[in-house]
Amino acid sequence: MARAVFMREKEVTTSVHLSGAMLPTGVAVEVEIKIHTRLNISAYVAKQRANVCLVLYCGQNFCVDEPILQMGEQVAWLVPVWLASPREGRKTKIGEFVVDAQTGEVLESRERCRVLQQIAQALLEREVIDANEVKLLMEGKPLPEKPRTPPTPPPQVAPGTDPKVVRPELRPAPGFTRGENPAKA
Question: What residues does each domain of the chain span?
Fold first, then answer.
């Protein structure tokens, strides 16, 4: 864990992912990271920018989650994008937008929206897609044809027997007893 101390003396603990660093094993390791930069775009604004991008270029069946600050070659907000439906809400995380923390620009927004739409469509059609299929979609290639399973035939009824038919029980309207009908207007 690394601690980030902000100008207002509010201390926040966050996780840091180290890649490409050779750390010794079996000994105590101390890692101190200091970054001095000005964040011109807050997490709230990054989330707003990603939402605007979704509405303009992707459509309605998407929503965003809380942004994650990424420190690398540039300081940026990673804004997770979820496939969502009005009835069921968030379903599946399908990608993320990268919002520049200095300028507020949503990087590669149109290309990311194209990929997000393709992933969402594939999920709606197939319900499940694997990593290779996501890679194909990100490269702009079509997915291989999904093998179709034949529909299940209805159960066979033995000859000479009547199939069971279930009919709903007729009930009186609320407030009336059996045989009593409302007065005609």
Answer: 38-138
Q: Using an 8 Å Cβ cutoff, are 72 and 12 in contact?
A: no
Q: Confirm whether pTM is higher than 0.85.
A: no
Cβ atoms 84, 143 nearer than 8 A: no
For 46, how many CA atoms within 13 A lie in the half-sphere containing its CB? 27
Q: Does the CA dihedral 89-56-47-99 come out positive or negative?
A: positive
Q: Which residues of the chain have pLDDT under 70?
A: 1-21, 23, 109, 160, 162-163, 185
Following DSSP, what letter does each residue of 61-125 receive, concatenated? SEEE---EEEESSSEEEEEEEEEEETTTEEEEEEEEEEEETTT--EETHHHHHHHHHHHHHHHHH
Please, is 96 exposed, middle or buried when counting C-beta atoms within 10 Å of its C-beta (0-12, 13-18, 19+)?
buried
Topology annotation, domain 38-138:
Nuclear Transport Factor 2; Chain: A, (3.10.450)
- Provide CB contacts within 8 A for 107, sequence distance 6+: 76, 97, 98, 99, 100
What is the chain's alpha carbon radius of gyration, rounded to the nearest angstrom?
Answer: 28
5: its two tokens: 């101390």
Give me the pLDDT at residue 45, please: 92
Please name the helix (run of DSSP H) or strand (run of DSSP E) that holds residue 131, with its range, or none.
Answer: helix 131-138
